[in-house]
Design a protein that fits this description.
Number of helices: 16
Number of domains: 3
CATH architecture of the largest domain: 3-Layer(aba) Sandwich
Largest sheet: 6 strands, parallel
Structural class: alpha/beta
Strand order of the largest sheet: 6-7-5-8-9-10
């Protein structure tokens, strides 16, 4: 029986996923809307369905669909939500109630979006009817034209999984685990538990792919029993297929790990190898994630401003010499700088933003760094070093323009880790 039919439902959080959930559920349910922020609705229908806090406390709801961005411990209806915890579901649960399509759900601390995008392009090239949804930016309940053959590639965050109760995925991937979102989950154990909901909810016959050389993942695997089959992925090993890959994008440690998972899954999906290799060779990655925005024989500039933790940056820091690293933004609680000592002399950091003290404490006695009031000052100092490397005036001007364009975009973001590195100067 579908648990989201003919019910009184509260949708809490009116971002993309919340609004998509409303549009999906409104035909067969009595749906109400709430958000902590004041919203000026253009739609009369949305305005009519929005209720205030007092009304919510006086109503009895059958189900509560909670958006991932709502923190149950800090939101305006915290007491109400905790009292009604058993009624809370995610949009993934709603999806699972209506669709029984094969899903490939990817989670982990780093590399989720890139792995999802790569897998989506691989399946698309192999003529699969595939949809890319979830935390990558496409709400799962907004997707149209779904047939029985449609396969869903889903990026799932720890927040979504934490609120989910019934969602199941035939294929599940946990790429890696390192301390992240501790300010919300409170402990690494609770964060890990949220991620592993993806595997614990699987049925017999389902497959879970997990990083074999990840201590936290393996500890959780050894201390639990699962109905699905667990398949370890050794990301330190180069497969015979990988030796044919010429795309430099996958030469960094992080992106090699992402590719390794896709290649492992490809064997079970019985994908055509020649077509698979062609897709991999042409893959260009996602914007702001280790994105090469300028390159010549002397200089490479990488925009990695989507990175919000040390762990997501370590791989690229290992892969080059003479690195100028612009580092700033809001630090993650529990974040650790675990870069092997042999790489320290390759890097000089230019630190800015309100969390300078945190970054200083993590990099002290490890790599050379300077502090700056803001990103523009940090950038100007990096320019000075670049200029001393005997670049031509034309090259220097190109670099100057490219980086300032990046800065203008980055200033709108909450967290920043931007990498610039020099090659063979």
């Amino acid at each position: 029986m579908n648990i989201f039919l003919k019910k009184k439902i509260l949708i809490y959080g009116l971002g993309k996923s919340g609004l998509a959930a409303f549009k999906f559920l409104k035909k067969n349910n009595d749906v109400f809307l709430y958000d902590d922020s004041k919203i000026n609705f253009k739609s009369f229908e949305l305005k009519k369905k929005f209720i205030n806090k007092k009304d919510i406390l006086n109503l009895k709801f059958d189900k509560i669909v909670l958006s991932p961005g709502i923190d149950i411990n800090k939101c305006k209806l915290s007491k109400f939500l905790k009292k009604n915890r058993a009624k809370i579901y995610s949009d993934l649960d709603v999806f699972y109630s209506f669709f029984k399509n094969d899903c490939i759900t990817i989670t982990g601390t780093n590399g989720k979006s890139t792995t999802c995008q790569l897998l989506y392009e691989v399946l698309l090239a192999q003529k699969f009817n595939v949809k890319l949804v979830g935390n990558i930016g496409n709400p799962i309940l907004s997707i149209k034209n779904v047939s029985k053959k449609t396969i869903f590639v889903i990026e799932a965050s720890s927040y979504q999984l934490d609120y989910s109760q019934i969602f199941k995925s035939k294929y599940a991937l946990i790429l890696n685990i390192s301390p992240d979102h501790i300010e919300r989950h409170k402990t690494i154990e609770k964060y890990l538990k949220a991620k592993f909901k993806l595997i614990k909810n699987q049925k017999k016959g389902h497959l879970a792919f997990v990083k074999k050389n990840d201590e936290l993942i393996q500890k959780e695997i050894s201390s639990n029993k699962f109905k699905g089959r667990i398949i370890g992925v050794n990301t330190n090993k180069h497969s015979s297929f990988y030796k044919n890959v010429k795309n430099k994008y996958f030469f960094t440690e992080t992106n090699h790990e992402n590719l390794t998972f896709v290649l492992k899954l490809a064997k079970y999906l019985k994908l055509k190898k020649k077509l698979l290799l062609k897709t991999i060779q042409n893959f260009r990655g996602l914007k702001y994630r280790q994105q090469i925005i300028f390159q010549n024989k002397n200089l490479t500039i990488i925009n990695d401003s989507k990175s919000t933790s040390f762990s997501s940056t370590i791989g690229v820091l290992k892969s080059n010499e003479n690195i100028l690293w612009l580092l700033g933004g809001i630090h993650k609680k529990g974040d650790k700088f675990e870069l092997p000592k042999k790489y320290f002399n390759n890097i000089e950091a230019f630190i800015f933003g309100k969390d300078k003290n945190f970054f200083n404490s993590k990099l002290k006695k490890k790599i050379k760094f300077k502090n700056f009031k803001n990103i523009k000052d940090a950038l100007n100092d990096a320019f000075f070093i670049v200029r001393k490397k005997n670049l031509s005036i034309t090259q220097y001007c190109l670099v100057h323009v490219q980086l300032h364009l990046i800065v203008l975009k980055i200033l709108k973001k909450e967290a920043i880790i931007l990498i610039i590195w020099l090659e063979s100067i």
